[in-house]
Each structure stands twice: as C-alpha cells, then as structure tokens.
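Reopening: structure tokens for the Dihydroxyacetone complex, inputs below.
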Amino acid sequence: MSIHLQGLQELTHLIFISMKDILKSNKALKTVLREIAGVAGYMWERGWAERNAGNISVHVSDLLGHEIAEKVSLPVTELPMEYPKLAGCVFFVSGKGKRMRDLARKPLENGLFIKLNDSANGYSILSSETDSGNFKPTSELPAHLAIHQMIAERGSSEKVVMHSHVTELVSITQAREFCKQDVLNNLLWSMHPETMIFVPKGVGFVPYFLPGTLDIATETIKALRDHDVAIWEKHGVFAIGENVPDTFDVIDILAKSARIFFMCRSAQIIPDGLNEEQLNGLKTLASNFQTLPQ
Ligand code: 2HA
Ligand code: ZN
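Re-run output (same inputs, fresh job):
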C-alpha cells in the first residue's frame, strides 16, 4: 500500500511544472513573485498578518499561459460555483494556512499556481514546491475568484486581489457609528488630503459574514463594483489593483488615515478633519490626477 502511494506521489510530482525552472527565464513572473514576497513582509511587520491571516491572488495568465498550455492532465478540484470568465486562467494564490511571514521569505513554498479548467468549475494545482497533498489555495479562494470574475466581466485591468487584517481599519468597524459607508469614507478621507487623491472611490462596507463563504464573496463584489477597497466588518480589508505594490499602498494609506484618527482620540483630541470644501477641492484634484506628484 505504502509503495503504491509513493509511486502515485512521484507521478504527481512529475506532472507538476517546475516553477523554479520556469522562473529562470521568466523575468516578469519573477518580479511579480518578488513583489508578493515584499508586500507579505510589510503586512507581517505592520501586525496585519497574525498567524495565517491574509491572502493574496494575482492573475498571471498573460505571464505564464503559453508556458503551460499543454499541461492539461492534472487532477481537478471542484469549485463551489462557476467562474465562466476565468476558464483556463492562471493565478498565483497564497496557500491555505500559510503565514505571510513565510510567504515573504519563500513565496513558492507558501503559495501555488492554479489553473481553472475549461468549464471554470474546478482548478488544478500547477506547481507546488511542498510535496504535501494538503497544500491548497487560501480559504478565501471563493472571494478571490468572484472578484477576478467581476474584473473580467467589466474588462478592467486589475490583476491583484489582496486581503489583510489591517488592525486600524478593523478597529474602526468595532463602532457601530462607523459601520455606514458614507460615515466611514468621510472619516477616512478627512484625516489626510492624500487619502482622497489615492483612494478617490473610497471604501465599500461589507457587514459581518462568515469568512470563506460564498455569501461574503457576493457582498464583497458588490462593494468592489464602485470602490477599490472593501472593508469587512470586524475582520479586515479586500483591495484590488493593477499591480502588487499599488494595491498594498491603497490599504496602507487608508490605515494611515485610521491611525491619525485613533492617535488624536487617544490624546483626547477630537480631530477636526478636512471640511467639505477642502474635500471637494481634493475630489476635483483627484479626478484630474494622472501621474504621481514628483
Ligand atoms: O487566510 O485571513 O479570512 C486566512 C484569512 C481568512
Ligand atoms: Zn481574513
């Protein structure tokens, strides 16, 4: 029996792609993995990634699709729903139960490449540098794929979906008065002028749901239809972006605003915040804003 299992494992190993080999020649993919590792480290350093908290997925079909086109005979794991716009697409996703601080050091051992099947109702693991059969994509895969599907439906260019337990933003949602989208956005925008510039669409608020479920995935895509970031009540944030560093920066800017608010409050200061006229001025500036100021 054990001999048989060992044989099976070897076979599975053979049909897995060696990512280390692909990365030797694929510089663009190497850069993305380096960026993921960098951002995972920042999340850990900021205290937003305790234990296995947080997850990330990056749509990499453009970078990897041609190299794996012929690899079709891998085992398929069923997904809880269909994602028709993602048929055949390839993603790098952080691994279930894996730690951000480990992803920061060894992205290939703490994340994996998956490819959706042609019916878009299942995925295959293309690579795994750990040989354990228990290595799976993040528990929030339904939310990640629902968001990538929404991005594909509207034809926009975001490739990255990032989830993190941002302490400052989770803290704000502990107060019922801030669990209203307009109140929350006004608070965050009013704490610092650059929040309006870099997060002009503000945040969408998602009331508490059980993590990892289709319900929270559905509510998250509703929130992300008109916003770059969704804040999950008493849990964390989901952000989307065109690349890994920019996606992290949006979360970081929002956290800064929240931190200013809490720092004032803990010094017994009731922050004035920017007023309506000042915010309107920033809104106009943001709509004309194309490139980063020098
Ligand atoms: O990856 O953060 O929401 C673990 C989580 C689940
Ligand atoms: Zn979480």
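The domain at 166-287 is CATH 3.40.225.10 (L-fuculose-1-phosphate Aldolase). The radius of gyration is 20 Å. Marking as resolved unless the reporter disagrees.
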